[in-house]
Amino acid sequence: MTVLQIDLETYSSVDLKTAGVHRYVEAPDFEILLFGFAFDDEPVTVVDLTAFEDIPKDVMDALRSSTVTKTAFNAAFERTAIAKHFGIECDPLHWRCTAVHALTLGLPGYLEGVAEVLKLEAQKDAKGKALIKYFSVPCKPTKTNGGRTRNYPHHAPDKWEDYKAYNRQDIVV
Q1: For a designed S-S bond to 120, which of 75, 102, 115, 132 qualifies (C-beta 3.0 to 4.6 A apart)?
Q2: What confidence tens digit (pLDDT) does each residue in 68-103 have?
Q3: Containing structural domain, residue 140
Q4: Closest to 77 measured CA to CA, from 138, 22, 128
């Protein structure tokens, strides 16, 4: 069976940890910024939705297919975000959560911890938390940032490239 591995980077003004995934994706400003994916052992592709790149047709078809297993670390988040963003049903029967799988094996419930414990060659990118804070959550308006409440890719193109690399690395790990 074909496996589609997915990792998303998103934005919402609602705090995910305090409000939960459903309130997070219901925010009027919720959006998927980056859509990373790989079929089976193929190379990872990152689609930059902020640059109006399109999700390939085979990926959209796979998201709807009952013959493709979709996997993600914390799959409930990806499944809920994809359903909201694209307006498609994401049947949980066709999704596998690698975080749940890790927990059933007595491993940590967070990707960085799993990679460390298993001493994987590929490790989670340490810059990720700062990049998430910069692009995926609102920022405080200051004189330095011109009073904006959100950082966009054009505000820091180098950081944006790092964010895309971070998204890619999360699929590799």
Answers
A1: 115
A2: 999 998 999 999 999 999 999 999 999 999 888 777
A3: 2-172
A4: 22
